[in-house]
Design a protein that fits this description.
The structure is a homohexamer. The termini of chain A are far apart. In chain A, strand 1, helix 1 and strand 2 form a beta-alpha-beta unit. The first copy, chain A, is of the alpha+beta class and about 70 residues long. The first copy, chain A, has a single domain, classed as Macrophage Migration Inhibitory Factor (2-Layer Sandwich). In chain A, the strands form 2 sheets. A two-stranded parallel sheet of chain A has the order 1-2. A two-stranded antiparallel ribbon of chain A has the order 3-4. In chain A, about 40% of the residues are buried. Chain A has 2 helices and 4 strands. Chains in contact: A-B, A-C, A-D, A-E, B-C, B-D, B-F, C-E, C-F, D-E, D-F, E-F. At the A-E interface, strand 1 and helix 1 of A face strand 1 and helix 1 of E. Chains A, B, C, D, E, F: Belongs to the 4-oxalocrotonate tautomerase family. Chains A, B, C, D, E, F: Its EC number is 5.3.2.-. Chains A, B, C, D, E, F: Keywords: Isomerase. Chains A, B, C, D, E, F: One of its GO terms (molecular function) is isomerase activity. Chains A, B, C, D, E, F: This is Tautomerase.
């Protein structure tokens, strides 16, 4: 009965990508630990780039620097 | 000083239901562990059904199947 | 398919208390949101009082002050 | 490689305040534990006052009482 | 810069299994979202079966019932 | 009433360092957001280096490589 929480920045993650993350993570837990998929939860959090910091800075700023 | 995080799918949870979850969880911690309600936090996360997976699939898809 | 995480300080929580927290939280989600208990997870984290802070201080210190 | 999650109520937190929380938390981990800021993540969650409970009540209600 | 938290019951997860969960999850985020593995964190929590509840009961009890 | 969760690797974090993380984080929330320290929680999780992955590998392995 695993619970997996995936946090990524909120940058246009599509339905297909979400479905792929859920299916892939669940399959990994089946393959590696023989868990039951019927009680395997995967929850995806999409976090605003304003609210995610790395190396002292908001990701919003890092994205702007990368674009210049 | 407990901290409780309740994650449910984002499907029209009302103010009254949120209040009932908060009061009920807090009362449970008072009753079972004699905790102080003044420092008992309850945080509810409402997660999009697109972002919650169970048994390889998004809950959105499971809800559609259940409706057909 | 709710997921509930209860964090309390690690101060001799008994098996019976853990069972009461799990059963009580699950019943609350059934009563308030009509959730299915078979896919309701409750995870209890017991946190060392050294690792929990409130009002600038470790709970370990607050417990010592309360005992004097 | 620390990971820090800051949950606050969603009450008009500004870009400058978010940046200050990220920079300040990262600096604290550098100062106290000599961590590498390049692999220090800070994620801020802004939680609706309807979804945060303390002392049996939603913060929304506590704010209304404080204003009266 | 994703952050993934995998919670499983604490039932003899080996080093090889942990390494497989970390590598597999990271590869999934590279494949699906083109994320940079150098800033992809995977944190595994092993939770005592006494502290994990499903369907009103501790997993400890469910395991005992399954063995009888 | 903020809640902060700090996850670091379990590598001999001292009582003094824990106290400094708690006091520093709480002060940051007072300074930046004018929060009440009496209802500011800081919870530190110390995660085994076997259970923390970055860039496909367990931190345990990265530490061994760094030492050679």
């Amino acid at each position: 009965m695993p619970y997996v929480n995936i946090k990524v920045t909120d940058e246009n993650v599509t339905q297909e990508q979400k479905q792929a993350l859920i299916a892939g993570t669940t399959q990994l837990l089946v393959d590696v630990l023989d868990k039951n998929p019927a009680t395997t939860f995967v929850v995806i959090d999409e976090v605003s780039t304003d609210n995610w910091g790395i190396g002292f800075d908001q990701v919003t700023k890092l994205r702007q620097l990368a674009d210049t």
